[in-house]
Structure formats: structure tokens, C-alpha cells
Amino acid sequence: MSIFSRFFSGQKEERLPALAELLEARGVPPDEPCRNDELLATFDSFRASEREAFADALASLHSKGLPLPPAWRDAQYELLPQIVPTWMGQRDPYLFRPCFDNLCKRILAYGKPVPPEWLVLWDISEDEADSIALEHLEEKTKGKPFVRQASGIYRSDFGDGLDASRILLPNCWSNLFPGQNTFVATPRQGLMLVAPQILLPKLVEALGESLKESGQELLVATMYQWVGSKLMPASLQEPHPMIQPQREFRQTDSLAAYAAQALELAKMGIGEPCHLGMVQTKQGRTLTIATWLEGKPALVPDSDLIGFVSSKGKPLGLYWRQTLPRIQRLKGDQVDIWGPRRLLFASFPSSEELADLECFAPPEVHAQILGQNNAPQKRQAAPQSRQSEAANAAMSNNSPVPAHLRGLSLGMQDDD
Predict the structure, then answer these.
(1) CA angle 104-82-150, nearest 5°?
(2) Partner of 158 at 20 to 30 A CA spacing, among 118, 164, 280, 294?
(3) Rounded Cα–Cα distance for residues 194 and 199 (Å)
């Protein structure tokens, strides 16, 4: 805090506006804040510019429908860190700070996320609040080591629902396997898994089982690796058998972000969010597919493939999304929204324009993938091209992915 600097600044304030006056100028009812003795005491120690920031914070809380902060004298002992997916940090009206790829950390007070306005009203910096929260988590972690499983990997067992937040405390898990590469996973808030590289298949198996249990409580599926005192998404080299599971885990996180984003976009009414799903190739590789329906402006995600469907529901084929810029007439506008990128397209490509794109699967195979080939085909079989071979490979079940992971993240994205 900077209380003493205010007393000895040597600067003379021209006028110190009252809180009621500042709130009235911002259209905020002054009754509730003015009845809070601690807030008034903090406000009275402020200079004029700081009083303006204080009133701005109160007005922001009022506009968001968020409550006033609890008293700092008590709340300072109740701060704890929490990790959430980056898209969630961007979406929610709470303080967040990126920490690792696809993860950010928030601060909890009494188990509730802290809005940035609370720090202004408490008159503390973000760094100070973050440091206090981390110290409290360290205290809660002492003497509670991870539990070794029969598989050889380690599982958290803290029982406070903040297990995943221990990813912020590498000292408590990075030395579990001296001299070996260490991998961690945090599929939900109450679970953290740690394994050496030699036990990656066991970690994948445990992570897959946990994802089945998590349901809507999924935190993040991506596996992370501790490399040179830094944590980053696990990067495996061919022909490592766990490359594909890690790819599926990362795609699962992407689908979760897009699913949450689609719910928000549906309320905005600016276009139709493309449904997002996945398909598996013969080699076991999974690709994300966005389904673009003709008839409405489309909100297209950054998928591997785009499946175009006519206004009559006829599949028109699957195409590589990265070749979409070949259609110069279509100019997508980036949507201003939290989370992963989407482009808004006002019109649908013509059949001639689709021919300019690189095809992954013809309409017939596209229909099979969508489950629409109810009637037998009577047309004569044509020689397979490279594109149709790739499309047919997408229908194969020959996959090196462990059986318990197959189909884990397949399916179409629904609004509910």
C-alpha cells in the first residue's frame, strides 16, 4: 500500500470529491457503498485521482451485477489461486493472468473468483494479491505428498478441490522422478496426475478414464511437460505412440472452448456457429470438422476440415479449411469475442468455387460421415483418386489410439 506516500507527497490537492458525488456522476446508487465503513475509510485516504479510480471500480461492479468485496482485513487470509482454461478467463468478469499454454490463473477469496475491481477497492496490486494467494496454497500443500498408484504414476489427494492449482507449485511435484522427463495432467480441478516419460501410456490411460468421469467439469485435457524449469504442452516426436492421444487431448480442449463460445454467439444473433466435430483417418489421426450450412451467415472456427451442406441438407463434401482463401470473393471478418478465433462469412460458396478448394472427401463419403446414406447407391463405382482414398480412410476403425480413448471426443457440437 502507499498510505505514507500520500501523507508526505508534498503536493497540495485542490479538491477531494466526496464518494456520493462521484457515484452520482456515474449513475450508481450511493447508499450501499456509503454504508460500508471499511470502503469509506479506504476512500478517505485517497487523493483525487485515486478517488476517481475507486468510483470507477464501484460503477463497474454495479454495471456487471457483481457484489462489493468482503473486508480486506479478513479476506487477505482467504486468498487462493485457481487455474482455468484461458478461454474461461477471457469470458468471465474476473481477474485472470495467463500462466501456461491454454491455462490461466485466477484468485479466489472465500472460494469465489475475484473481480479486478476488488483489488482497486482493497488498494492492493495484482502482484501482491497473487503472491499472498500462492503462499496460502503452499501452506495447504505442506506434508501432503502425491500418492503413488499401482501403475507407477502419481495422483494428487489433497481433498480441497484445488489439486490442479498445484501445477503452480513445481517444487511439490517436479522432483518426483529425478533425472527423468516429467509429465503432468490436470483434467479437473480436484485432480492432478504426474508421470515420467516411460510411463506416458499409463498417464494417458488414467487421463482418459478421468475425462470420462469429468463430464462438464473438464478443466483441460492437454498433457504438459516440465522442461528446463518451464511447463509447456507435451511435444513428442514421431514415431512415439502417444503423439495421437496428445493430439486428441488438445483437440478436445479446442472443442470445449468452441462449444462454450457457440452458446454465447447464438445469443448474439450475428450468424450461425458452425458445429464442430472430429473424424479419424485410417492411420489413427483425428481431424476437426466444421459443418457450414447454406442459408445463413456462418461463424467458421479454425478447424482442419470444413463440411459444406446445402440449404436442402445435401452434403457437398469435406474440404481442407486452409485452402478456403482461394475463394477470393469470400472475405471472412474476425468475430470480436473471447476464446479461439472464428471468422464470419456472409455468403456460401458456389459449386464452382468449391471446385477450387482441396477436397478431402467427396459428397458420398461426407454423407456417410454424417450418417445420411440411408438409401443404397446405384451409381457405378469410379476409380479411387488420392482424395477419395483419403476420404475412405476417414471411415476406418484401424487406429493405434488406445481402445479406451477411441471416440472420446468424437461427435458433433450441440448448443445444449
Answers:
(1) 100
(2) 118
(3) 10
**Contacts by 215-218 with C-beta closer than 8 Å and gap 24+?**
217/188, 217/189, 218/187, 218/188, 218/252, 218/256
Residue 368 grid cell: 456417410
Sketch the domain layout of the chain as residue ranges. Answer: 1-68, 147-235, 251-375+383-405
Say if CB 119 and CB 54 are below 8 A apart.
no
Quick: pLDDT tens for 282-301: 888 999 999 999 999 999 99
Judge residue 312's burial from the number of C-beta atoms within 10 Å of its C-beta, 0-12 exposed, 13-18 middle, 19 or more buried: exposed
Cell of 205: 490411460
pTM of this structure: 0.83
Can you tell me the distance from the alpha carbon of 205 to that of 185, in angstroms, rounded to the nearest whole number?
11
| Interstrand relation of 305-309 and 315-320 (parallel, antiparallel or unpaired) | antiparallel
- Rounded to an integer, what distance in angstroms lies between the CA atom of residue 10 and that of residue 202? 65
- How long, in residues, is the chain? 416
Per DSSP, the three-state class of 88 is helix
Torsional sign, CA 306, 309, 315, 317: negative
Kindly report the backbone phi and psi dihedral angles of residue 191, in degrees, each rounded to the nearest multiple of 5, phi listed first.
-150, 135
What are the contacts of 341-346 at 24+ separation with CB within 8 A? 341/301, 341/302, 342/258, 342/261, 342/265, 342/273, 342/299, 342/300, 342/301, 342/302, 343/299, 343/300, 344/270, 344/271, 344/297, 344/298, 344/299, 344/300, 345/271, 345/292, 345/297, 345/298, 345/300, 346/297
Q: Which of 159, 182, 162 is nearest to 170 (CA)?
A: 182
pLDDT tens digits, one per residue of 157-216? 999 999 999 999 999 999 999 989 999 999 999 999 999 999 999 999 999 999 887 555
Q: Report the amino acid identity of residue 33.
A: P
Please name the residue that has the C-alpha cell 477419395: 388
Q: Which three cell numbers stand for residue 402?
A: 488406445
DSSP, res 94? S
CA distance 321 to 394: 16
- Residue 169, Cα to own-chain centre: how many angstroms? 21
